[in-house]
């Protein structure tokens, strides 16, 4: 479990003087400016939940991650991760933490993957008995059994990231910080990796904080999303609720024999239907999900043949664009 209560972080940065004179003055009499990276953030993440932590550049994501990791001390507020203060009890905290950064590796470049896993096991004080089975189980989960004897420098990016994940999960961390885990991977590798992460996190009941600019990662992995903007929480909840709140609803799109005007009035009266409009010859029925599409079809089919039908789920990008536009 992760608890952040009223957490703020302010950085003090040196104000550079203008020109050579300003530079010299700033050495003699330095002037500082304060940057508020986090402004009164409160979050409670239960054990085993996967949270997509997203926001534009500079929103405060990395600062939060560093605070949870115990690397940075907050300027105000209370932080408890798996029952500990991550900054004050850093050593014990690190033993229960896993970190994966898609663009960096914790594996030894010139050594076989297995050596890195064994070294990691020592650092994390894992018992030697049963270690081979534990490594075998992780290797199976991430499909790296055939790579264990290869030097890391010979691996492709996708293979390397799978090995990094196996390493991060090896000590069964209670909290895993995942930063852009699928960056640079192709479509199939991303899909494989996401499903492996989900499976292992769920088996081990690992709490995962995922920061990613790849919104497909966020959608595929997260139980909950937290949107951050200028150091504040803009939204905290499920993607489904967010879609509904911002009026970006799934649509049923139909080409009908009858004209749209004939059907619009009674479609609009159906439960779960929020809006009916026509676009490019399609009758578009925005609905709240659930049984609404079935109800629409049951109502339509006896009245008029449906020539073509499709569904449109608004992408997470569409939803977020609206949210951030609304906040500014
Ligand atoms: N060590 C630091 N010293 C001074 N300012 C900092 C420091 N670290 C972060 N900041 C500032 O705090 C704010 C939040 O930065 P942070 O790195 O947490 O954002 P982010 O959401 O992770 O951004 P990105 O998506 O670009 O990585 C920014 O204005 C940044 O310039």
TrEMBL record:
<dbReference type="Pfam" id="PF00005">
    <property type="entry name" value="ABC_tran"/>
</dbReference>
<keyword id="KW-0813">Transport</keyword>
<dbReference type="GO" id="GO:0005524">
    <property type="term" value="F:ATP binding"/>
</dbReference>
<keyword id="KW-0067">ATP-binding</keyword>
<dbReference type="InterPro" id="IPR003439">
    <property type="entry name" value="ABC_transporter-like_ATP-bd"/>
</dbReference>
<dbReference type="InterPro" id="IPR027417">
    <property type="entry name" value="P-loop_NTPase"/>
</dbReference>
<dbReference type="InterPro" id="IPR003593">
    <property type="entry name" value="AAA+_ATPase"/>
</dbReference>
<protein>
    <submittedName>
        <fullName>ABC transporter ATP-binding protein NatA</fullName>
    </submittedName>
</protein>
<feature type="domain" description="ABC transporter">
    <location>
        <begin position="22"/>
        <end position="255"/>
    </location>
</feature>
<dbReference type="GO" id="GO:0016887">
    <property type="term" value="F:ATP hydrolysis activity"/>
</dbReference>
<dbReference type="InterPro" id="IPR050763">
    <property type="entry name" value="ABC_transporter_ATP-binding"/>
</dbReference>
<keyword id="KW-0547">Nucleotide-binding</keyword>
């Amino acid at each position: 479990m992760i608890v952040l209560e009223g957490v703020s972080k302010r950085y003090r940065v040196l104000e550079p003087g203008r020109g050579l004179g300003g530079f010299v003055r700033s050495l003699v009499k330095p002037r500082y400016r304060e940057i508020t990276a986090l402004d009164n953030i409160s979050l409670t993440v239960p054990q085993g939940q996967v949270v997509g932590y997203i926001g534009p550049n500079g929103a405060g994501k990395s600062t939060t991650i560093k605070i949870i990791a115990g690397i940075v001390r907050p300027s105000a507020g209370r932080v408890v991760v798996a029952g500990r203060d991550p900054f004050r009890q850093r050593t014990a905290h690190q033993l229960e933490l896993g970190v994966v950064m898609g663009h960096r590796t914790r594996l030894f470049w010139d050594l076989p993957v297995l050596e890195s896993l064994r070294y990691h096991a020592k650092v994390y004080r894992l018992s030697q008995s049963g270690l081979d089975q534990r490594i075998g189980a992780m290797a199976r989960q991430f499909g790296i059994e055939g790579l264990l004897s290869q030097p890391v420098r010979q691996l492709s990016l996708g293979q390397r990231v799978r090995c990094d994940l196996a390493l991060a999960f090896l000590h069964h961390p209670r909290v895993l910080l995942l930063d852009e885990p699928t960056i640079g991977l192709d479509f199939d590798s991303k899909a494989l990796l996401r499903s492996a992460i989900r499976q292992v996190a769920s088996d081990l009941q690992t709490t995962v904080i995922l920061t990613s600019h790849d919104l497909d990662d966020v959608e595929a992995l997260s139980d909950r999303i937290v949107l951050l903007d200028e150091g504040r929480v803009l939204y905290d909840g499920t993607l489904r609720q967010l879609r509904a709140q911002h009026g970006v609803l799934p649509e049923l799109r139909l080409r009908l024999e009858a004209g749209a005007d004939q059907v619009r009035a009674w479609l609009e009266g159906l439960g779960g239907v929020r809006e009916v409009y026509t676009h490019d010859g399609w009758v578009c029925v925005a609905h709240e999900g659930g049984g609404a599409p079935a109800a629409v079809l049951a109502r339509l089919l006896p009245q008029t043949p449906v020539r073509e039908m499709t569904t449109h789920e608004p992408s997470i990008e569409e939803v977020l664009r609206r949210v951030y536009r609304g906040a500014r």
